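Dock adenosine monophosphate; give full complex structure.
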Amino acid sequence: MIVFFGPAGAGKSTQGQILADAYNWSWISPGQLLRESLDVELMEVMKKGKLVSPEKVNELMGNALVCNQNSTNVILDGFPRQLVQAHWLIENGPKYNRFVDLVIMLEISKPELFKRLHARGRIDDTPEIIDERIKLYEQEISLIVDYFIKNGIKIVHINGAGTVDEVHDRIIKELAVCNLV
Ligand code: AMP
C-alpha cells in the first residue's frame, strides 16, 4: 500500500488517482467515500472541517479494503489522519493482507494551498475551514509519522509545487527507487 499525506489542497487526490490509473491500482479515499454516503450527520461534520469519528472511518476503510482485495496495490488518500487510525491500519494489516510500503508526503506552501483550494471551490473550502483542516493536519500528522517510522515504514517528502505532470514524475521516480513500479 502507498499512503499519501499532505494537507487538503496538496494534490493527494489528483496524484493518487493518476497513479492508480497508470498502474491499475485501487485508490481509496475516505473523504470521497464519506461524500458518497450522503449521510446528513457526517456531511455536517465534514462541512465544519472536523474529522469524522475513527469508528466510522475505520469501518469504511475496512469495507473498502475488502472490496479492493484483488487489486495488486492500493493507494490510500486521506487515511490515516489520526494516530488511532494509524494504529488500526497497522494492526489490521494481516487481516486484510495489506501493508504500508511507502508514505508519500506532498509538501506545499500555505499561500499556494489557499490559492488551489479557492480555485477548487468545494463547500468545505472556506478560509476558516481550510485553516481548521491545516491545524488538525499538522497536529496529528507528526504523531502518525513517528509511529510509522517506529514501525519501519519509509516516508518520502515530495515537492507538491509545479504542474500535475511534474509532481507525478517526482512520485514515479521515488516509487522506482523503492522498487514499487
Ligand atoms: P478529503 O476529501 O480528504 O479532503 O476529506 C474531506 C473531509 O472528510 C475531511 O475534512 C473530514 O471531515 C472527512 N475525512 C476524510 N478522511 C478522514 C479521516 N481519515 N478521518 C476522519 N475524517 C475524515
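Observed: The chain has a mean pLDDT of 93.
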